[in-house]
Design goal:
The structure holds two protein chains of two kinds. Chain A is an alpha/beta fold. Chain A folds into two domains: about 190 residues, Rossmann fold; about 100 residues, no CATH class. Chain A has twelve helices and 14 strands. In chain A, the strands form three sheets. Chain A has an eight-stranded mixed sheet with strand order 6-7-8-3-9-10-13-12, with helices on both faces. In chain A, strand 12 and strand 13 form a beta hairpin. In chain A, about 45% of the residues are buried. Chain B is built from twelve helices and 13 strands. In chain B, the strands form two sheets. A nine-stranded mixed sheet of chain B has the order 6-7-8-3-9-10-12-11-13, with helices on both faces. A four-stranded antiparallel sheet of chain B has the order 2-1-4-5. Classes of the chains: A alpha/beta, B alpha/beta. At the A-B interface, helix 6, helix 7, helix 8, helix 9 and helix 10 of A face helix 8, helix 9, helix 10 and helix 11 of B.
């Protein structure tokens, strides 16, 4: 794998202002992404996980500049995209593509497959009119569809096939980075594996770099080289994927991992799991200090006032927790006991 | 004693303008008192329609074409709507996937729970409120006496699902059917709800049917499992049978297509090829034949009978026939009816 960094996100922020009425003086903000930094190397897959509302999709969309960032930098191949205008962004639209979650909503129902695929080709002048047809056939075959699918409309396809069309559309313009926003969540289990395997094959074949956003931790672990765990707009932990699953340091990552239902009853019933109490707080004017403090079994007063920063603990493993060392050594005990699943 | 629930040769179809969609085809299973049964299958496998058929909630253009549902030995599939509504809520309750659409947004939780309780029990509203508060406490809602005055939008998704469970259990049903109860929830909240269900099954005397597409959820709470595909039952057995001794290529394929993170390996996934059958024109033979790695000529032509390999374990696959070629991982069973 190439070690050069393709995408570097520095302190990215995206706030949505909440309309609080014409008479209110103070505006409140929904801080969807609040100071996120990470980098993705060429040819690798970076997974971004978290629960709904943690800002993982907003991060992806802001990188693509579907949203304008409130602050921070998006360095793509060294070039900052955060300040570019629409015209300046055009070359990057070709280099960064996105695959969306819902293959029913992301394909225009009134366009045939070949129209959907040729749109990008024409916008970016990828090939001549004469070459277009051949290029479309090539793309369809690449994603496991047939040539005669080109003249059909999206409604004639199943969910899995539609997602293949979305992937073909993203790849049509020969991107370098593909942002996959929950690309398999809407698909059936037996189809998910087909799409994941295809994404892996295409990556090897075309040297693609993926930002893979999902809430399904087992799939993210399967596909990613490195993973970032988000909670309420901030990154809690970033690590190589195997290390994250073997040695999670942040209490949120630990809880998230122990919450995955494992399809193996013997393992499930032996495992002790830490079940988080309560729900994710609102991202509108979120609490001071560590975002996770209100649900953290290890939280102290310091956690409630001081926001921990991501620190490198070696091997490129980053964690944002005041007490990670004390938790790892067992010095700091949980305020609430670890619950075992009793059967 | 008769089993709590017996479903025999159930057939449910939807008569749409494009033709008959055979959503459930010849489904039979039995649920004993105190069991937790998981029905697992992908979208369109007929798992939800089976549950709605049991509840008598199939609406036009849907129709139960054949078969019977026996509850404690009594046939309930022939009852009219009035008689059935005595059974729904009192004897069998159901919770659904999306807790927001199951609760009425313009009434308080108290209003909605008391309505359910008084519809089924002859008690005054004060006692009904008291019972509702007790139920909320049972499902782990903090400060139930205060929270009962709230509206559904003031609760989070996980809390709403707890309210639904509390409401469903408020009349002490013998059977609770949960249709994808955790699918709309985040993984940490899902863990809370599954823990609650595990806890309730020990404390409340209710049998449970859980319908889900997630083998992980099944592993967590169920002791018996039914695997459905294309409107039919593929395999039936205890949790041990299905997870450690699967005898149907679909069950095997399903298990191979999910990543096994707990084993620490990163082997390539083995997907099931193709896509599920169109039930508007269901295949003549086995519904899984078109995607099955072991498919034989007979699989395409005739639907397999059910083979029994142990008292608890059955599978509908021709590979288990005594005349079938020996295939690794499969063994011969005895053909039975349903």
């Amino acid at each position: 794998m190439d070690k050069r960094v393709l995408l570097k996100v520095v302190d990215l922020k995206k706030y949505f202002s909440m309309d609080t009425g014409i008479f209110s003086k103070t505006k409140s903000y929904l801080k969807a992404v609040d100071g996120v930094s990470f980098e993705i190397r060429r040819g690798e897959t970076f997974g971004l996980v978290g629960e709904s509302g943690c800002g993982k999709s907003t991060t992806g969309r802001t990188i693509l500049r579907l949203y304008n960032p409130t602050g921070g930098q998006i360095l793509f191949d060294g070039e900052d995209l955060s300040g570019l205008d629409d015209k300046g962004l055009v070359p990057y639209r070709k280099k960064i593509q996105m695959i969306f979650q819902d293959p029913y909503a992301s394909l225009n129902p009134r366009m045939t497959v070949s129209e959907l695929l040729s749109e990008g080709l024409r916008t970016h002048n990828i090939c001549t009119k004469e070459q277009e047809q051949g290029r479309i056939f090539e793309l369809l075959e690449k994603v496991g569809l047939k040539r005669d699918h080109a003249n059909r409309y999206p409604h004639e396809f199943s969910g899995g096939q539609r997602q293949r069309i979305s992937i073909a559309r993203a790849l049509a313009v020969e991107p370098e980075l593909v942002i996959c926003d929950e690309p398999i969540s809407a698909l059936d289990v037996s189809i998910q594996a087909q799409v994941v395997n295809m994404l892996e094959d295409l990556q090897n074949e075309m040297g693609l770099t993926y930002l893979f956003i999902a809430h399904d931790l087992s799939m993210v672990k399967h596909i990613s080289d490195r993973i970032g765990v988000m909670y309420l707009g901030m990154l809690m932990e970033v690590s190589e994927s195997d290390e994250l699953y073997e040695k999670p340091l942040h209490p949120y990552t630990q809880a998230l991992l122990s919450a995955i239902p494992i399809p193996d009853p013997d393992v499930t019933r032996k495992n002790k799991r830490r079940i988080l109490t309560g729900d994710v707080p609102s991202p509108i004017d979120p609490p001071e200090g560590c975002r996770f403090a209100s649900r953290c079994p290890f939280a102290s007063d310091k956690c409630k006032s001081e926001t921990p920063v991501l620190e490198d603990v070696g091997n490129g493993h980053l964690v944002a927790c005041h007490h990670w060392q004390a938790i790892a050594t067992g010095e700091r005990k949980a305020n609430t006991p670890v619950t075992a699943v009793v059967v | 004693m008769a089993p709590l629930l017996e479903v025999k040769h159930l057939e449910t179809s939807f008569f749409t303008h494009v033709g008959e969609i055979e959503a459930v085809r010849d489904v039979s299973f039995t649920l004993e008192h105190g069991q937790v049964l998981g029905i697992v299958g992908e979208s369109g496998s007929g798992k939800s329609v089976s549950a709605l058929s049991i509840m008598g909630l199939i609406e036009s253009p849907g129709k139960i074409k054949g078969g019977k549902v026996l509850f404690e030995g009594k046939e309930i599939s022939s009852l009219n709507n009035g008689q059935m509504s005595e059974i729904r809520g009192n004897e069998i309750s159901m919770i659904f996937q999306e807790p927001m659409t199951s609760l009425n947004p313009v009434y308080t939780i108290e209003n909605q729970m008391v309505e359910v309780i008084r519809r089924h029990q002859k008690i005054n509203s004060k006692d009904a409120t008291k019972l509702a508060i007790d139920m909320l406490k049972l499902v782990g809602i903090p400060e139930p006496a205060k929270r009962i005055k709230s509206y559904p939008h003031e609760f989070s998704g996980g809390m709403r699902q707890r309210v639904m469970i509390a409401t469903a259990l408020s009349c002490g049903p013998k059977l609770l059917i949960a249709d994808e109860p955790t699918t709309a929830l985040d993984v940490t909240i899902q863990a809370q709800i599954l823990e609650l269900m595990n806890d309730l099954k020990n404390r409340v005397n209710t049998s449970i049917i859980i319908i889900t597409h997630d083998l992980g959820v099944i592993a967590e709470v169920c002791d018996h499992i039914v695997v459905m595909y294309g409107g039919k039952i593929m395999e039936k057995g205890t949790e041990k049978d299905i997870f450690y001794d699967p005898l149907h290529p679909y069950t095997v394929g399903l298990q191979k297509s999910i990543p096994k993170i707990h084993k620490g390996e990163r082997a390539r996934l083995v997907p099931i090829k193709g896509s599920p059958p169109d039930l508007l024109h269901p295949p003549k033979g086995c519904p899984f034949a078109a995607r099955c790695p072991h498919a034989m000529q007979i699989c395409l032509e005739r639907a397999p009978p059910t083979y029994r390999v142990s008292p608890t374990h059955t599978s509908a696959c021709w590979l288990l026939d005594k005349n079938a070629p020996k295939t690794e991982g499969y063994r011969t069973g005895e053909a039975i009816d349903g």
